[in-house]
Specification:
This protein is an alpha+beta fold and 395 residues long. It has 12 helices and 18 strands.
């Protein structure tokens, strides 16, 4: 039977789109190229223990009574109750540029606002004017690209403050080097600083299982190991897809959630970005005994850091750039408990995608590269949050 709608990509955005569509359409088909749902926010097992990938936190936290908040509106659209998810708010997060300055933020916006006004007194009024301006911006309106750095320079005198504000936003929301469109900045400013972080109770697998269950309750179908080779169009309308297996599936409508450049490629169009400047990331997961809590920060959920003289969010010339990144402490969410005697520290750094891809041709060299990457990431994390005890490292 021909599906009414095909959704390409089984990440969180694809699942959300598929659930919403399945509420009002019959025979919605979700296609995922991998053997597990979740996309960049997924999980794997090692030594019978589940390890999460990707998901440090979810943005746009909102209290239950705030009906207009994006999070609560999304839950209503997906027919998911807050109690089904369980909410673990961040304790606090930090933007740390060692030797220069540190800013702390939480789910209470006034905290970072007061922090900036105290530590960057010359920019206090400018920052308040920026916040007032952001309240008037419609980030979903059509318009040409506008450099965030150029806009911020009209409000803030300190390049350091600009870099510090941008650091979390670039790591969590930009595929462009060193800057982002001002409308995207507006969205991320509200999401990260004005609303804040949380994570679901339980594991990412529990969360994905909930989304999959809701999709299937509305009659949706998921096909794993079903990578799309081409999107078939007629008169600029999607009428089907061709899978990597050669199978063709027709549909009335199609939705792609795999990214702009990836979608353009499936359409046979030229990607918007130069692939030679493709941003990449590495993540190391350090498994530590629960007793390590006593020597690690107890009130930091995520730490965004930069140790270089200038913050650079760009493709590194080396395999990995350890000068900046994100340290995630997933045990530091309010109400989070440990049941198996272990906690995790996760580190994310910029990487050179091309160099990693080339190294993958030699398995022995690739394993050595991963080991070196993990060791370098550990040294940088220890310099910021303190030494790790004996640990098991998974990459």
């Amino acid at each position: 039977m021909q599906p009414s709608v095909i959704v390409i990509g089984g990440g969180l955005s694809g699942l959300a789109a598929a659930i919403r569509l399945a509420r009002f359409n019959e025979d919605v088909l979700l296609l995922e190229k991998h053997n597990r749902i979740g996309g960049l926010n997924s999980y794997y097992y090692r030594n019978n223990r589940l390890f999460e990938t990707g998901l440090h936190a979810i943005t746009n936290y909102a209290q239950k009574g705030n009906k207009r908040a994006p999070l609560n509106r999304l839950l209503r659209q997906l027919k998911i109750h807050r109690d089904e998810i369980g909410f673990r708010e961040q304790i606090k997060s930090e933007i740390c540029f060692p030797g220069r300055e540190s800013l702390v933020f939480s789910n209470i916006f006034e905290e970072i606002q007061e922090n900036i006004c105290t530590k960057f007194k010359h920019d206090a009024q400018g920052f308040c004017r920026l916040v007032n301006h952001l309240a008037t911006v419609d980030p979903f309106s059509q318009g040409p690209y506008q450099s965030t750095r150029e806009v911020l320079s009209t409000y803030l005198q300190s390049p350091l403050l600009t870099d510090m504000l941008l650091c979390p936003m670039l790591y969590y929301g930009s595929s462009w080097e060193n800057d982002l469109d001002f409308k995207q900045f507006t969205i991320l400013f509200r999401s990260i600083y004005q609303e804040g972080f949380f994570r679901p109770a339980g594991t990412i697998k529990d969360f994905l299982d909930l989304l999959v269950s809701r999709f299937k309750e509305f009659g949706g179908t998921i096909r794993l190991n079903s990578g799309v080779k081409n999107i078939i169009t007629h008169s600029r309308k999607i009428i089907g897809v061709e899978l990597e297996s050669g199978e063709r599936i027709t549909c009335r409508f199609g939705v792609s959630t795999i990214g702009l450049d990836e979608t353009k490629t499936l359409l046979g169009e030229t990607a918007a970005q130069d692939k030679s400047r493709r941003l990449g990331f590495t993540e190391s997961i350090f498994q530590l005994p629960d007793t390590s809590r006593s020597i690690l920060p107890s009130d930091r959920t995520c730490i965004f850091f930069n140790t270089a003289p200038r913050f650079c969010y760009e493709v590194p010339e080396t395999v990995v750039d350890f000068n900046s990144g994100v340290i995630s402490l997933p045990f530091n969410f309010k109400g989070e408990t440990v049941s198996d005697g272990f906690i995790e520290v996760r580190t994310t750094n910029l990487a050179n995608y091309r160099l990693w891809q080339n190294a993958a041709a030699d398995p022995a060299a690739y394993r050595a590269l991963k080991k070196d990457c993990s060791a370098g990431s550990r040294r940088r994390a220890e310099a910021i949050i303190g030494s790790f005890p004996e640990n098991i490292v998974f990459q």
